[in-house]
Write a structure and sequence with these properties.
By secondary structure, the chain is of the alpha+beta class. It is built from 2 helices and 6 strands; from the N terminus they run E-E-E-H-E-H-E-E. The two termini are 20 Å apart.
Amino acid sequence: MSNLSFVKTDRAPGAIGPYSQAVRVDGWVFCSGQIPIDPATGDLVSGDIGVQTDQVLRNLSAVLEAAGGSLDSVVKTTVFLADMGDFAGMNEVYAKHFGDHRPARAAVAVRTLPKNVDVEIEAVAKLS
């Protein structure tokens, strides 16, 4: 692929498998899913869905910044929830992080997420 580069930052959790935090190609950034891990300690963040979503979006923001973007450059997200009953709580925190920016989004309930967390979010962004 042309201009393919891998994004890595210590301000977000490192990959826990054979993948990259994000891949940048031709002005696009494809971010791997982020879960609520504190990058400073490597520990899972405990708390309700709001607390977990906040950490996930701070991690995602750090990856996007390392790639040269921000949450404002996101065009599409996918939210994975262990329980669709957590949708409203996730959505409230999600809206605060994105402000008036409204990327396309899918939200799906899944049976299990890595490390048994309640939320994971991935994103695709377009750099200027």
